Amino acid sequence: KSNASVGERVEYEIVGIDPGAGIMKATATAIEEYGLEDWTLIEGSGAAMTAALKKAYDKEEPIIITGWTPHWKFSAYDLKYLEDPKGVYGGEEFIHSIGRLGLKEDLPGVHKLLSQFKWEAADMEGIMVDIQDGEKPEDAAAKWIEENADTVAKWTDGVQEGNGEEVTLAMVAWDSNIASTAVISNVLTDLGYEVTSRQVEAGPMWTGVADGSVDALLAGWLPVTHEDYAKEFEGKYEDIGISMEGVKIGLVVPKYMDIDSIEDLKE
Ligand code: PBE
User: Domain ABC-type glycine betaine transport system substrate-binding, which positions (predicted)?
Assistant: First the structure.
C-alpha cells in the first residue's frame, strides 16, 4: 500500500465545494492543464469539504481539497498548498466589495462604508475560528467589533447614519463570507440600517447585484477566482473597493502528505 500512488490512495478524487465557486472552475482548469484526466472533482459544499478534511486528518489519511485563505482550517490543522507552477489558481487574490448600480445615490452611507471597509486576513480568520468553535456568527462578529473599535471607526468615518432603510447583502455559505457578512451586517445595523443577508449560490449572488435585486456582495474574489462572473456582468455592477489583500485559492493537503506540487498528482 505504501507503494501506491497519491491518486490510488485518494481514489483520484479532489474534494471540492459548491459548483458555482470560482475555485471549482479553476480546479476544472487545473485538471485539464496538468493532465489529470483520471481525476474527479467532487462537488459538495464548504461544510462537506471541512467534514471530509476532519475525518481524513483525524486518521492521518491522505486527502486533497479545494482550499482558500483566510480560513479557520489553517488554524485547526497543519496544511499546505500544493505548488501550482502553471499558475492556474492565480497568485495574490483580492476580495472586492461589489455594489449594485445606483447604490451610491440611493444609500450613500452604505456605499461609503463599503468603500472604507478594509481588514486583514488574521481579523477574518479569528472570527471564523470562533464560529467554528460554536459561536453564532453575529456574536463572533459583535465581539470582534468590540475588540477592534479603532478599525471599525475608520470604516464608519463620515458615514451617513441610517433611519431604518433596508439593505440586502447577498452571500454564499463559505465560512469566509459568513464572517465578513456578519461583521458588515452588524456595523450597518448599529448605524441604523435594516439589514437582510440573503444566502444564495455564487452565480445568483453576482446575478442579484447585477440585476439590482440585492444591494451588495462582499465576496468578490478577483482577479482570478470570480473572473468569469465579473466579465459576464461587466457594466452592471460597481466595484466599490478592496476589503482584503493577499488572499489565495488552491489545492490544499495535510502537511503529512509527501507531495508538494499539483504536478505530483500526475504519475
Ligand atoms: N471561495 C471563498 C470562493 C470565493 C470565496 C474561495 C471558496 C470561490 O471559490 O468562489
Answer: 5-147, 166-266
